[in-house]
């Protein structure tokens, strides 16, 4: 695991994650006697010498391995806490482990009493009113016990993060670095987009304007009415092509339909102008933030353009779906693959998404197919 990974434990997914966390809690309780034996060493000034320091290191390594294997923590490998921090963590863990063991013991006793009450109710030696009162009291105590266990687990996670890294200060420093990097990526993407627009204007629109001017000049100097009519016809067609190219440039800068009609209509505009058949599945129930819909539009536009120019694909499939507070844009084609995730266009998209705390994943093996997935928070 890299140093850039945090220690904020991954949330377990499904039953397997809950079972692993439960096993981790039980193992933590079993380790508690060792931590209690180590507690006098942790309280000694200077840590008790080299032998005690070695014991501290071994117990800390055991705790780190337990948190990683059962609780899903991701601690940076090269982060090493000071001996004083390790001793403080092990002392705190001894306390939380002891309290956890007591709470689990109370839960076990409660389960045993519940069994005795159920047996008494079956035999008829316990009245229903008394049984109802005992069940109510037991439910309240069980709720408090569960809340206590959850609070202890959260406290243990926080202690492990502070000890094994990264600390709150380190997390803040990384966040500042990420924001600075994303800002630099956005500036780079903006500069690249400006250069592309300048190139489009210079190589496309400007050349057509020069050709139109020459056609009009030749028509103005002509003496043959038929020849003049031909030149004016060419100038008319050139003006139409020029208008079409200007609209294309304007759409690539920022499509007006995106603000006026929404993302779905803007994507329909991409499909109408695309050189490949484009299938669009749009499942977004409500309006999106302006920055999110703009980023999603450019993801689709860039991927469709790349597919038409480089992939040799016969069709492109676009899926835009919102799941809660996250928008997922998936663009796939049936071309030859081999797209470079570090290429200029995709790198610019990655920088644009990173500025919104979004991600871009490119899967494009040689031989295809290519699938580009973007995820954006909608908050």
From TrEMBL:
EC number(s) per entry: 2.7.13.3
InterPro entries: HATPase_C_sf, HATPase_dom, Sensor_HK_TwoCompSys, Sig_transdc_His_kin_sub3_dim/P
Reaction catalysed by this enzyme: ATP + protein L-histidine = ADP + protein N-phospho-L-histidine
Transmembrane segments: 94-119, 131-155
Origin superkingdom: Bacteria
Domain Histidine kinase/HSP90-like ATPase as annotated: residue spans: 294-377
Segments forming domain Signal transduction histidine kinase subgroup 3 dimerisation and phosphoacceptor: 193-258
Leader peptide range in chain numbering: none
Keywords for the protein's UniProt record, in alphabetical order: ATP-binding, Kinase, Membrane, Nucleotide-binding, Phosphoprotein, Transferase, Transmembrane, Transmembrane helix, Two-component regulatory system
Enzyme class at the top of the EC tree: transferase
Record's protein name: histidine kinase
Native species: Kitasatospora saccharophila
